[in-house]
Specification:
Elements (H helix, E strand, L loop, with lengths): L1 H7 L8 E2 L1 H8 L3 H14 L2 E4 L3 E4 L4 H23 L4 H15 L5 H17 L4 H12 L5 H7 L3 H17 L2 H27 L5
Helix pairs in contact: 2-3, 4-6, 4-7, 4-10, 5-6, 5-9, 6-7, 9-10
Length: 207
């Protein structure tokens, strides 16, 4: 969990080597639990382990981000639309609470990423579509370590919060199509911002 927070918060950047001995010293443990943690984070998509070469924080290209966010936008819009017809007062109350909690943690990247993820997964869980929710969760895990750039470097959280509120309002109205439309644009907009961010950091392509 601590290593995941370090990656999500941007303290460990995409492409950064993760050396067993250094991590063991940092967390004051033996290398065995570090190996186990790295394997778990590899399953989540946050880490890549190369035989005989060690591990690195997963680095995604602009094309990979575009692929993931295109799929996510479609699936998460579907999840929002299906959830509205089965929405409960309990789910709405939880979503309201999470939006308020995100407002109070705007300077804390790791906390914001967790709260944001819970907000979205709480909504989709209301759909009752377990396989859809599993697919969405898997794809969201693969990009969560890029959200620090969206939050800290790009300052995107205020607009995201406005969109979160609009999604909740659509759910309250029973407007499934409206919730789906807002969700699709919400996810796609974050994707576009991160793709541009990665492209700019990569610099001009060699001809």
């Amino acid at each position: 969990e601590s290593l995941r927070d370090e990656i999500i918060s941007g303290n460990m950047r995409p492409g950064q080597p993760l050396r067993l001995e250094d991590l063991a010293a940092q967390f004051d443990v033996s290398t065995m639990p570090v190996r186990e943690a790295l394997r778990e984070l590899e399953a989540e998509g946050l880490v890549k382990i190369f035989p005989h070469r060690g591990a690195v924080v997963t680095e995604l290209t602009a094309d990979e981000l575009e692929d993931i966010y295109d799929i996510r936008a479609t699936l998460e819009a579907m999840g929002a639309r299906l959830a509205v017809s089965r929405m409960t007062e309990e789910t709405l109350a939880r979503m309201h609470t999470l939006v308020v909690q995100m407002d109070s943690h705007l300077g804390e990247v790791a906390a914001l990423v967790k709260l944001n993820n819970e907000f979205h997964l709480t909504l989709y869980a209301a759909s009752g579509r377990d396989h859809l929710c599993d697919l969405i969760k898997t794809l969201r895990l693969r990009t969560q370590h890029y959200l620090h750039a969206f939050i800290s470097d790009l300052g995107g959280m205020p607009q995201a919060q406005s969109e979160h509120r609009a999604i909740v309002e659509a759910c309250e109205r029973g407007d499934g199509q409206g919730a789906a439309r807002i969700m699709h644009e919400h996810v796609a907009r974050v994707g576009r911002a991160l793709i541009e961010y990665v492209q700019q950091r990569a610099g001009p392509a060699l001809s």
